[in-house]
Amino acid sequence: MQHLVDTTTLSDTQIQQLLHDAKAFKAQRPSQLLRDKLLITLFFEASTRTRSSFEVAAKRLGAAVVHLDPGKSSTKKGESLEDTFANLCAMEPDGVIIRHSENDAPGILADMQMTSVINAGAGNYAHPTQALLDLFTMVEHFNGDIQGKTIAIVGDIISSRVASSGIRLLTRMGMKVILIAPKPFMPKSDLPQYETLEDVIDKVDVIMSLRAQLERHASPIFDDYQEYAQHYCINHERLGDRDILVLHPGPVMRNIDISDAMLKDERCKVLEQVKNGVYMRMAILKLLLLDS
């Protein structure tokens, strides 16, 4: 039984297969490969892009999708996550897509070996499908040649499961990753670290901006989001005419993470990431439910 708890559970061959299938799905909509499959989405945290992207991906492949709202489920009555999952699995779904605030929740459910488990974001550690769609977006942009490219991850890195998953996958794929953040936003890491983007702007090929999550920090280091934006907003003043790809996992806080003008710039691929997310998640569903 195949799961996707983190990209570390995927072989190099599987990652290349995912990139190949996502590209093929983008070029031509496939047949109803999963028309006999049933998926359940179980999101304990709010989600717009990831949940809808999975649902669109599943339905484009012909699968049926049932969404369970944990806010109205028996977990609110004291039922454990494991018991909720076991009861869902008794209905014989082919996979459960879960988002949870705890880092280890998807792994715990995968270890129960009752159905395929797909991690749609857990805690601050793993968001594997986002890392894979970001990889696909960069591979596509650079015509397959990302080896040795430098990506700067900018913002609240310590709180970000997107950054955590991205660091593991992108370094594995041969990219150079550097971290840009104020010290309280910086995780413990052996990667190069800087407090300002200006220090390295001429060395980077890609900037991944992250959502500012000032509310997650008990001792705020900025008075407000506008002060944060003065130092870390990705805008034309900082980028100039440099040929740098700009990414963001969403939701974008306009004029705080990325400026309005930069969001309209052809170097910014935020909406392309959303589009590619559907195709990559189609590839993931095919891999887990059909090819395994």
Automatic annotation (TrEMBL):
Domain of life: Bacteria
Entries under InterPro entries matching the protein: Asp/Orn_carbamoyltranf_P-bd (IPR006132), Asp/Orn_carbamoylTrfase (IPR006130), Asp/Orn_carbamoylTrfase_sf (IPR036901), Asp_carbamoyltransf (IPR002082), Asp_carbamoyltransf_Asp/Orn-bd (IPR006131)
Pathway involvement of the protein, from the record: Pyrimidine metabolism; UMP biosynthesis via de novo pathway; (S)-dihydroorotate from bicarbonate: step 2/3
PROSITE patterns: CARBAMOYLTRANSFERASE
Protein name in UniProt: Aspartate carbamoyltransferase
GO molecular function, one term: aspartate carbamoyltransferase activity
Source species: Sulfurovum xiamenensis
Keywords noted in UniProt: Pyrimidine biosynthesis, Transferase
Gene: pyrB
Subunit (UniProt): Heterododecamer (2C3:3R2) of six catalytic PyrB chains organized as two trimers (C3), and six regulatory PyrI chains organized as three dimers (R2).
PANTHER family according to UniProt: ASPARTATE CARBAMOYLTRANSFERASE, ORNITHINE CARBAMOYLTRANSFERASE, MITOCHONDRIAL
